[in-house]
Each structure stands twice: as structure tokens, then as C-alpha cells.
Design goal:
GO terms for molecular function: magnesium ion binding; mannonate dehydratase activity. The chain has about 400 residues and is α/β, with parallel strands linked by helices. The chain has 13 helices and 20 strands. It binds D-gluconic acid and magnesium ion.
Amino acid sequence: MKIDVAEVVVTSPDRNFVTLRLTTDDGVVGLGDATLNGRELAVVSYLQDHVVPLLLGRDAHAIEDTWQFLYRGAYWRRGPVTMAAIAAVDVALWDIKAKAAGMPLYQLLGGASRRGLLAYGHASGRDMPELFDSVRLHLEQGYRAIRIQSGVPGLNAIYGIASNATAIGNIGVRYDHEPAQRAPLPAEEDWDTRSYLRHLPDVFEAARNEFGPELPLLHDAHHRLTPIQAAKLGKALEPYDLFWLEDCTPAENQDALRLVRQHTTTPLAIGEIFNTVWDYQTLIREQLIDYVRSAVTHTGGITHLKRILECAAQYQIKSGMHGPTDISPVGMAAAMHLGLALHNFGIQEYMRHGARTDAVFRQSFTFADGLLHPGDEPGLGVALDLDEAGKYPYQRAYLPFNRLKDGTVHDW
Ligand code: GCO
Ligand code: MG
């Protein structure tokens, strides 16, 4: 079975998505997600100009060989653009292999290790009443684990706070706060770490008083703290029993988490902007984290993320795969199949896509009683409707950026 056609499809139903669509000489179609939020067209070029010519005529079954060929053959290694492009090829080939075998992909990855994947959603509010309404809405929608992000008095716009609420279909309201606005220039947010550190423990105390001790609660600090600030926050949050504190320090500095770890037992998660196993070497070997946050889409696909998670398993570190709306339904399906099969699955981030996105990408997953399941269709269980996709051309979008009160650009 040879790769006969390789197309890169860019569509922007609710936001931009980049999809690689491979067709074999006997007509099997495989899909891979290559969406890199705010830098989408760099991956399109990497695929179209440099990878597609290498794929035509290759054995579609040779997944490991193709991975090594694309990774080592490029010579220039790692990085989000390269690893998203390789991920798209890898996932499309797994989709093809599973369809050829007539099985849902998780069966090829070892079979189901559980009934479904515990998923968490994003609740947020500018103040506590708004935040609590958002938590209640998520509970009504079936979530059994919830990330909470709150406004900070004195700051106008910060990461993770819903700016608008959109009514969608029969599932209620989607809080559309995922960053990357369709805009000619990035939006500016503001930040003050001392105000945040003072305010956040009160938010968690109020949330525990309101929703009780059982509900798993998570929080994302989005890389904005120094190691000692993160250590202080982790300690302050210990009474509220977080499921995890995410990205507390800038992700480039693996050593930072050694200091954080010395001071707090709050579980730590990191990795959404990592792209290879080498970004995790220190973190895994020294047991400095509890959850691996990488997405299949940005980490070289199923082949490479499985490798990372198998290393992590030796140290009791679990998966917590990245799943905001900038991971396409194809990338989400890949995460669900891998998560269902892995022994050391922890939790899956899951935000709902909009109705237009769901019409472009027809999906077979289910979400019931807090658990996701990828479904039992052969392959990933996602079909790309090219006519629908063609209705929504690419629109330039940028992630926001952040300034401190004195104007200094800060981690966003
Ligand atoms: C998360 C992430 C996202 C990122 C986004 C950037 O935890 O889901 O932090 O909200 O900011 O994926 O493109
Ligand atoms: Mg995050």
C-alpha cells in the first residue's frame, strides 16, 4: 500500500485548522492534524514545500521508518513547526493502518485500558459569581473535573478568562476564551504577579466552599511565574487539593521545577509547548512533574508521544494531553485513542469545538458522565468534509501578548 496523494487542507470554520490528508493507491484516506495556533502557515509551507514530495510512493505501513526518515533526514531537529508537520504525517499513517485493519486505532495501540477518559473543561469568570456560574454550567454539561481561571482585581484582561459566551447547538453555551483572535495584530493583556498571588488562593478557597472537596480542580499559570513565586503559589494552594498546577514557570527552564518541587506537594503539569522527549529528560528522570501536557499534534504524533509517556510511566508520571480548541478534531481523536490504550493515562483536556467545526470534521467520539470515548469506527473515526472545509478560507489570527504595569513585555 503506497501513499499516492498528499494534500494540505487549510480551513477556518470557527478558527484556523491545518490538516494533512493522505490517500493510498488503494483508496484509503488518512488524516493528521498540523495546526500550530497563530503560526499555521509556517507548517503548511513545511509540509507542502518540503514533506509532501518525500511522501509520494512511500509504503503507507512503514510508520516508524517514515518518522525516523522525516526526523533524522531533515538534520535540523525539533521545534514546533517540524514536529507538528511530522505529527500530521504520523497520525495520518496510523489512521490509514487502522482503517486497513478494520479496527479503531486504540486496538492497534494495545486495546482499551479503561472505559473512557476522564476529561476536564475550562471554567472562568471575571469575578467569583461569574466563575461559579461557569463551573455550574460545566457540571451540567457533564464535566467531572474542571480547570478554574479567574480575573484578578486591578487587571483588565488576562489569559483564560472568557471574553464572550456563544450559544451553540443543543449543548448550551461555549465560553469562547481560547486565545488567538482573528485580528490583524495581537491583542494586549496586562499582568501583575503580586496581585495574582494574593488573589488566587481566595478563589480556590471560595470554590472549595461552594463545590465541596470531591470535584477535581485544576489551574493554569501559563508560564508567568519565577521559580520562587511558583513555589509560593503551590504552597498556598495546598489546602485546596488541586488536581494540578499547570505551567507555573517558563517552559524552557527544566531546572526551575526542581526548586518548585522542593517547596510544594501541589501536583505539577507541564509540556504543552514542548515537542520532543528531550524536553522532558530532566523532568521525568528527576520526577519533577506529575503530568505530561504534550499534544499528539505538537509532539511528533502518536509514535513520539507514546515514547514520552512510556518513559514517564517508569516514574509514575501520567498523561494530561493538551486539548484546547486549537487542537483540531483530528488531533483530539488521536489523543483519545492513545489515552484509551495507555496504562498511565491521567486526564484529558477537552473543550468543545463550535458547530461549524463539527460540520467540517465529522466525528464519532462520545462524552458521557465525564468520560470521553473515541468510538469504534475503523481508524481515528474522523471524516473531513472537503466541501464544508472549502467554505472557510484561512483568516490571519494572533495569540495575545502581555505587558507588566510598567510596560515590560512578560510571559503571556
Ligand atoms: C491550555 C493552553 C491553551 C494555550 C493555547 C495556545 O492549557 O489549554 O494553555 O489555552 O494557551 O493552546 O494556542
Ligand atoms: Mg495551558
